[in-house]
Amino acid sequence: MSSLNDRYMHLTNYSINKMSSQYTQNEDASACQGHKWTVKTLWTYLEKEGVDIGVLWNSLVDLVIKTIISGESSISQLTKANLVSRYCSYELFGIDVLLDETLRPWLLEVNISPSLHSSSPLDLAVKGPMVRDLLNMAGYQIPNKLLVSQQEDILNNFGLKDKDINLCFDKRLYTTVLSKEERSKHSFYQDLNQYLGEILKDLTPDDIRHLIQSEDELTQVGRFMKIFPTPATHIYHEFFEAPRYYNMMFDAWEMKYSENRQEGIQLLESHCIQKKHLTIPIPGGLTKSSVSLSNISPRSPSPLPVPEEKCEDKPSAESRRVQSLTSVALYRAARPRSGKLGVILKPFPRSGYLTRKSKPSNTPVKTSSSTPVTCNLSEMEPASPLELHDNDIPSPTPPVLATY
């Protein structure tokens, strides 16, 4: 209670501010009245004042990305130590920002448990849809406890009679274990400048699982918008503690398929038909996904060799085990975004990595400077895009930001 009168500490604390005798409740989510506005309302007000909303919003996105990256190293370490599966890990952050007289944003604090109480029509209008979209992206799945007959009855009720459709959760889709070949590929590209044109050529089962989950999550964003990775967010790679394999892979994926996602989805579907995404390492020589690849030496100076499939009259026991289970219809990304935020000291000196050269040349890859930034820290737990949820904000210049 000794800090109760500290106005600076409680500047954005609604639980304290609402007790003031001067506090005015806002009963209309679209009105410029009271002490709490939606971002959409603020945007409307600022536009009338001649403010360039697109520039302001991009500066906010930039702040959010750098804020999350500042804690990425610690988050990755905690994720590796405490999580067995990506499925059960995601986080909703509340980020408090102060705009000064020049509309420059300043980070005040990051709340790991933002209030979801809805005590007014404004709260309901903002938080209700946000929670809906959040849970859709988290992708809760039916636990694998139903009898086969029960699953078949449910699938039949929905007109799904394909034997390869699995109704329940399949833990293989969220494994954090990498095979020897997958670790070799991670190590190889971590030390390679020219990854854009090569990294997607021979997708591993782990690559496919991450890409499937990311694309599936993207269909469920609602009023959120993915702010990392995009074709323009490679400029933030320098702020990571070390090069991250999944950052490179998703960067290459966005560069190639961001304007034609259906083509990328068809590629993933072709791999799923072959059940490649369900191939997981054989128990015994298991290794979890590396948090930092800087301490892994490449196993080969050449690109990852892809094992050739051998035709056998009688499939091996492992082959039968890998292919016996059915594929899953929906894939969701689970985002581990929790941990203690740190401070970015300096970017690592890797100019070649930042240029993302697709060919051995001195010419950086050109990207549109107007493409908005967004955030999914692929390696906090690899592969899940960070999303911003802005309350009914009209998108200034699509796709600068998803609207809420």
From TrEMBL:
GO terms for molecular function: ATP binding; tubulin binding; tubulin-glutamic acid ligase activity. Transmembrane segments: none annotated. Residues 360-374 have a biased composition (Low complexity). InterPro entries: TTL/TTLL_fam. Gene3D superfamilies: ATP-grasp fold, B domain. The keyword DNA-binding does not apply. It comes from the Eukaryota. Residues 307-319 have a biased composition (Basic and acidic residues). Residues 395-404 have a biased composition (Pro residues). Pfam families: TTL (PF03133). PANTHER family: TUBULIN MONOGLUTAMYLASE TTLL4, TUBULIN POLYGLUTAMYLASE. This is Tubulin polyglutamylase TTLL4. It comes from Diploptera punctata (Pacific beetle cockroach).
